[in-house]
Structures are given as C-alpha cells and as structure tokens.
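Before the break, one more example. Copy the sequence into your notebook; we will annotate it together after we see the structure.
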Amino acid sequence: MTLSRRDFLRIFGGSAAAAVGGFALAFSPTGPTASDADLKSFQARALHTAPVREMPSPESPVVKYLWEDEIFDVQAAVGRWMQSSEGFIAAHDAQPMLVTALLEMHDTPHWAAVVGAAAAVRAWACDSAPLIEKIGHGGVMRVLDRLAPRAACDAWVAIADEHDRVIGWSRNTLWSAIGWRTTADADLIVDAALRRAELWEAGAARLCADVALGRALVPGEYPVTLYQPGTTIEAAGHTRLGVPYVQRAGNELSLGGVYWHNQFGAALDGLDIQLPVQIARAWFGRLRRVIVR
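Here is what the structure looks like once it is written out:
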C-alpha cells in the first residue's frame, strides 16, 4: 500500500506550505531524500506499551498491545492515528521511522544516528553486559572506536557523548554514519500561540510543522549561532543522551529533534522548540535565524 504525500507529511508532523506545489524531505545533503518514489509503507515504533484498536477511537475495542520499541508498518494516517495491518495506534503512542539506506561507518571518530527502534549501549561489548543507556530511533551520538569483528555482524562500536566521553559499547548494525552541509540560508517562523513552525527559503514557505514548546517563548528574532548534531539535555527529570540535530541561538533559544515522545503541538519540558526527528534532520544546518511571533 502506497502512502499519499499528505499522509506521509501528516505522520511526520508536517504539511507542505500552500505556496509550494511539491515537496521533497531531504534527510541529509549527502544521503537519500524522500521523493514520490519513497512514499511507500514505512514503519513506526511503540514508545511504550500501546493498544492497537479496531477503529481510530479511544473507545474502540483493543485488538492487541504493542510492546515498547516494537516496530509496525504504517499504511495510512487517519487524523491523529496511524493505521497498521492489525488496527489503529494513537499517534502519541508511537514514533514514526523512515528507514533509508545506511551510510557505512569507516573511519572513527564520527557522528552516527540510531537506525532501528532503539540502540542499547552496554558496559562492554557483549549482549549480556549491563545496560548503560538506550537511545531511541534517530538519536545521534559519537562513535570513537570499533572492535575488529570475526564477522560483520559481530562488530561493536564505542559510543560517546558530544564531549567524546565514552558511555559504553553498542552493536554497529544499530547505527548509521550521518553527514550534513551547513547553508544557513533559511528562516524558521514560530507561532508560539499555535505551537507551529514554518520554514522559509528564498522568500517562499516550504514546510509547516507542529512543534512542542519547552517554555513560553519571547517574541523576537534569534540568529542561529551553534549547530550540534547530538547533545545531552535534562527533560522531565531525565537525562537524555543523543538529542539530535540541535540548533541554538546563543543561550536564548534551542531547537532540535526528540525521540522520546510524539506529542507535537503540546507544551512539554525539554528543548525550547521540539521537532520530530526527521524534520529536525531536514532543517539541520539550514537555519540562519528563528523568528518567534
């Protein structure tokens, strides 16, 4: 079953601006883009134990439950629901995933993103080693080293934070190298009351997206001064590692992707402006300023 462009954008929390006839979501200037040919059934992961219902309604009977990080195919978007082959899952219970071709990790150190539902980071290179951290889909960390494997599937990589402090070891098959290009030629206009953002390039609106806000925003113009592929933040009493594609306007404003919730349009503790991971990646390095209204 092929997804429509509207369904594709809706599931990822965005919509094409009226001024644009077509839209291609570029995940990386060095990687694949999501064009019409890519708008086929893709996947999502359950953020926690989540019910699958017969119909897109919280009163509808439960067909089954999904376990945390269980992956399912998404066939369509119906309002704030995702439709799978077995029923309907509320959008806030799952994180959309668009899996593209992996970029191999040759040299270290480098930045890499989680490509599966989640990546376990363990105390040493063994599946039975104590779990240190779990990074959700799209999270970005540093890869500092790798163990020489007996086979490709046996490779383990040393995972570190943005300061190159080693956190632990993870299977290399759970990660993909990332690349990006900094252009700083676009403006992001944020409507704080509606919790909605619009990307403008070359005098035209390109994409609208719902955002979650971490605090009340002060209207004004904020020049973007720092790009962080992955960083660590405190949110809702939790330390979140690998927060992806963060752009900062000095100490005044921060925006980036989140992999631990899918409640865009709400007010939630964390980054000042929170985006779906894939949209944060598409906008990474492109912003010269954020305009809050």
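The longest strand covers residues 238-249. The domain at 110-177 is CATH 2.30.30.40 (SH3 type barrels.). Try to locate both features in your own notes.
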